[in-house]
Amino acid sequence: MKRAYKLQNLGCANCAAKIENDIAQLAGVNSVRVNFMTEKLILDADQEEFVSILDQAQTIANKYEPDLLIIK
User: Fold this and answer.
1) Global pTM?
2) Does the domain at residues 2-71 carry the CATH identifier 1.20.1250.20?
3) 66 DSSP 8-state letter
4) Does residue 63 register a pLDDT over 90?
């Protein structure tokens, strides 16, 4: 299942790259893109695990950008 989300408070391109890399390592993730310029997260993951993966993605994002929100 592939979905796109708006990112609020994404502060730097380097953090976006780190977030993307860490999310890509999660089990069940087929692909992920974090675009700093458009402030978007595009996530393709297993449908059965999608909600859990999205929650983990938020936790990862907050490790690098404490105020970042994934707008659902």
Assistant:
1) 0.95
2) no
3) T
4) yes
